[in-house]
Amino acid sequence: MKKLRIGIATQILIGLVLGVVVGVIWYKSPGVETYLKPFGDLFLRLIKMIVIPIVVSTLIVGVAGTGSGKNVGRLGGKTILYFEIITTFAIILGVLLANIFQVGHGVDLQAGTKADISQYQETEKAQEQKTVAETFLHIVPTNLFQSLAEGDILAIIFFSVLFGIGVAAIGERGKPVLQFFEAMSHAMFYVVNLVMKFAPIGVFALIGVTVSKFGVDSLLSLGKLVILVYAALIFFLIVVLGFVAKICGVNIFKFLRYMKDELLLAFSTSSSETVLPRVMEKMEKLGCPKAIVSFVIPVGYSFNLDGAVLYQAIASLFLAQVYGIDLSIAQQLTLILMLMLTSKGMAAVPGASLVVLLATLGTIGVPPEGLAFIAGVDRILDMGRTVVNLTGNALAAVVMSKWEGVYNPKKGTEIMTNSYQEKVS
Questions:
Q1: Residues of the chain predicted below pLDDT 50
Q2: Which of 104, 102, 99, 96 is nearest to 323 (CA)?
Q3: Which end of the chain is more exposed for a tag (fewer CB within 10 A), N or C?
Q4: Rounded to an integer, what distance in angstroms lies between the CA atom of residue 423 and that of residue 257?
């Protein structure tokens, strides 16, 4: 008799459903957070534990494998250009949809669940005091070990790229160093597989706490915003990223099916970090060179937040409409420019989306207190925008590989199809 095997995606889905059920049954019960939160926190800590070693090792191996700083510079320039184009398109789409549907009109400001936003206000003030020059200087670490301890991903990427170029430059003498980081990379991917066994329990705990804490009341009072944001995210995912994928010879639906395990986990945990190692591994299997994958995807986690900026554009105009503030075309252009800048400068900040939103509201004359009105459903919206962020970054590796002339669409489609058939059988 054949032994029944339940895949990781199915296990995560079961954990997700059970978490929702527990949250609904024990709504507002303090016991849910008391008993479940440690399991959710443990899973997130396990993920954070392995992300930095994987980013460092794979980025150094990838950059050293390109052979020269000139190649890295060319790839970096193309990558940043692509990220800027696609995120700007996401912001403009959000602004257009918010103007068309006007979901903020008629919403009762007293009906929403108010949340404490003091932590975001403090972070926003600290970020606001930084000049543009200071923001860029922050990318260069003064103490690598401090940056590693704080999880400052941009500073870590900067050092890893330079170190990788240095390893490539010294030729044969750099081979032992390269072999060390290659072995480290393989070992960390093995650790990832161990950590992922805990994922269903982590998802169950995180979702259970979220539903129990916020319930359905806040969702109903802000239903129009939630529906519009999710509709916009789905449109961007299927139409915009679908068009980009088609240019590269990739079917977006097959791509999403290929990535479904990672997308489901990212959706459940509201964290792209949880699947970073697995996404990189899958993109390599798809035919994207390690040098491109290890550079593009980590950089995308800071520079290519399509889902986040789309949400921020809609939320900003939603709050303006709630307060009855009519924004001029000039003010909306200012909003677009602000989101283009702040979404990059605060990428590594905890609660980044709300912090960026808070920084943006002041520029268009919306009271910052409005953030408390939508903060209650931010976790629900975060789940959706995380999926779009993740898909956009994974697809970016394909785009850059195609741009560099090293991606085979036919072979990629074959791998996606075979991968799906193996899971079904």
A1: 1, 111-124, 127, 345-350
A2: 104
A3: N
A4: 11
State both tokens at 219.
């969702």
Give dist(CA 344, CA 349) in Å, integer: 10
pLDDT digits (tens, 9 = 90+) for 332-388: 888 888 787 666 644 444 456 766 777 677 777 777 777 767 776 777 888 899 999
Distance CA 235, CA 388 (A): 10
The pTM is what? 0.74
Label residues 326-345 b or e (16+ Cβ within 10 Å = b).
ebeeeebeebeebbeebbbb
How far apart CA 272 and CA 307 sit, in angstroms, is 12
| pLDDT tens by residue, 34-64 | 888 888 888 878 877 887 888 788 778 877 7
- What is the DSSP secondary-structure string of 136-191? HHTTS-S-HHHHHHHT-HHHHHHHHHHHHHHHHHTGGGGHHHHHHHHHHHHHHHHH
CB of 74 within 8 A of CB of 291? no
DSSP, collapsed to helix, strand or coil, labels residue 286 as coil
